[in-house]
Design a protein that fits this description.
Number of domains: 2
Bound molecules: iron/sulfur cluster
CATH superfamily of the largest domain: Aldolase class I
Order of helices and strands: HHHEEEEEEHEHEHEHHEHEHEH
Strand order of the largest sheet: 1-2-3-4-7-8-9-10-11-12
CATH class of the largest domain: Alpha Beta
Number of helices: 11
Helix content: 25-40%
Shape: elongated
Radius of gyration: 21 Å
Amino acid sequence: MDAGVSPALADFDLASLQEQFAAWGLKRVHAARVLRTYYARDGAETDWAEHGLPSAVVARLAAGVSGGVSTLAARQVAADGTTKLLLRLRDGRTVESVMMPDHRGERVAGCLSTQVGCAMGCDFCATTKTGFERNLSAGEMVEQFLALRREARAIGRKLHTIVFMGMGEPLLNLEALLAAIHRIASNGLGNIGWRQITVSTVGIVPGMDALDATGLNINLAVSLHAPDDTTRAQLLPMGRRYGVVEIMAAMDRFQARRGRPTIIQYCLLRGVNDSVEHARALAGVVGSRRIHVNLLTYNPTGISLRGVDYQPSSDEAAEAFFRELRAHKVVTHFRRSRGPEIDAACGQLRRRTTVAGV
Ligand code: SF4
């Protein structure tokens, strides 16, 4: 929390709010009630006098706790119900979060950002074009979660799964990420099951090991996007630092501790990484590991940093890639593109609204 800025309830976990209450001369027991009410209301503004709290607590909350760390700056809804939110932070910067309804009808998945901008420089990504601005706090991640839960509730659904796959590289903001995950998964606060939470990385091996060492029973996804170091390094600058073999070894360690499959994300780019030979090489990388491969459709974001006009694979190439992986007994799924008409690639809404001055 910045000096001189009132803390918001999203900034606290239970222990730190209890400490804050004690510092204010209030009973710690009321901190739990306040925080649980805050999460139960999905962070919506409330008159604390209506919750049966002592008047000293109500007065202190009114005087010393701000409404929130972010406000809704823009909202777009696609035909399939995918909803993209642009949240404005206290310092005026903006981040995106996305709610994706699932086909079963009662659930949605949420995609959260962990940084403003991104330094990773993945060549096909819109977010990185504006560079890295700063890490998000745990409270700023929690408020994205609560905003998506409000969206889900408004359409009569439940926010069931969370993936940290929006703007930024989560493992380069590990401390805040872990604090946010603890609050989101905590009983009585976020109440999302640990196994419903996925962290996605470009393959920062020390970060993968640090996440593994927490022992948290969450899922790990790696954006591999190419089966060999040469192709990968063209697409992901981080591919020059951490090779495929090293990344797979870190995935093995993560998987060994938890016993569940890990995930490879693979965005199919026409003529770049989508040949049958690439699929065969990817099957070789996966081998007999318990890994699920998610094939992603590329949403064009204009000319890349390296001046490439990436295009999505043709349906035929994507199908052939899928069949080749399946022929090698690799568990493979197509992840259909969500809300392409609302600029599904992360960073696009932010760029457009920044330009438009929203
Ligand atoms: S794909 Fe993810 S990690 Fe890569 S530049 Fe974009 S936001 Fe960063």
